[in-house]
Amino acid sequence: MKVKGKRVAITGAASGIGKALAVAFHSANAAAVIASDINKAGVQAVAAEIKSEGIVTDVTNEEDIIRLIKESNDNCGGIDIFCSNVGIGAYEDFLKITNTEWRKMLDTNLMSHIYVVRHVLPQMLDRGSGYLIFTSSAAGLLSQLGSVTYSVTKHAVVSLAEWLKITYGKMGIGVSCVCPQAVRTAMTAQGAGVAGIDGMIEPEVVADDVLEAVENEQFLVTPHKEVLEYIKYKASDYDGWIDGMQNLQEKFIDEINDIIK
Fold first, then answer.
1. Between helices 62-76 and 112-127, what is the axis angle to 10°?
2. Which pLDDT score is estimated for 132?
3. Does residue 257 surpass a pLDDT of 70?
4. Is residue 235 in some structural domain?
5. pLDDT confidence tier of residue 195, bands split at 50, 70 and 90
6. By the 8 A CB rule, do 68 and 118 touch?
7. Mean pLDDT of all residues in 15-24
8. pLDDT tens digit string along 104-138?
9. What percent of the chain has pLDDT over 70?
């Protein structure tokens, strides 16, 4: 899908990857870029930078998603591209994770995407065109040492994106799933841990890769190219890959335990 002239909505746009996406789409001459985030001051600052509108949105609240889409439709006449970008991370001791902590991760990292699709997809299907972008993680293709909640929810996002592409791809709906390793954002401010094994990249690098993927209608976006090799190895020798991850865990175990504490 050509980005120029398209109407774009982005969640989690106050900082990090979301902000970089907002700036990148604006620079690529999108017709409109609607920035949304739970951080009012942050999203208003981004909106001012790209001369657009900022909408305060709690993505874990389905009614907020409905309002975001309605306001975007009212202001722009519709949404061509939706970047569902919000996510949170956590390190935890599996045996001590509460149901409340599980629900927080599921609501933020999975249900937010489901709410978006539920309410934006119908207009795209009616038009016969639209594009959905999901920010997952390399952890959604591999695993996140020290965080079962992050691993499980990010795997679920990849599965959701795959299913949507399979189901609606021939109905004019494009889908991209973004799976970076460590990106310099608020989430990695205290250090990237094992996720930074192949280096920390800037959010702008991710945004550039996303726009290229949209233009080429490419499903999987892996800003860290090493991830593709890891996937190939995992597919060719699953047990060997698990052995390797166990060895990697032993290497980083002290750092992981320090974070969990």
1. 30
2. 99
3. no
4. no
5. low
6. no
7. 97
8. 999 999 999 999 999 999 999 999 999 999 999 99
9. 92
Residues 6+ apart with CB under 8 A from 188: 182, 195, 196, 200
**Given pLDDT bands bounded at 50, 70 and 90, which one contains residue 231?**
very high
Whole-number Å distance between alpha carbons of 203 and 21: 8
**Alpha-carbon gap, residue 243 to 54, rounded angstroms:** 46
CA angle, corner 189, sides to 184 and 195, nearest 5?
65
pLDDT at 1 over 90: yes
Q: In 3D, which of 55, 48, 44 has the Cα closest to residue 26?
A: 48
Domain count across the chain:
1
**Burial letters for 8-25: b for 16+ Cβ neighbours within 10 Å, e otherwise?**
bbbbbbbbbbbbbbbbbb
Please tell me whether residue 8 adopts helix, strand or coil conformation.
strand
Residue 202 near residue 19 (C-beta atoms within 8 A): no
* Strand extents, DSSP E, the chain: 7-10, 32-37, 53-56, 81-84, 130-135, 173-178, 220-221
122 lies in some domain: yes
Tell me which DSSP letter residue 92 carries: -
Residue 161: CB atoms within 10 Å: 25
DSSP state of 133: E
124: CATH:
3.40.50.720
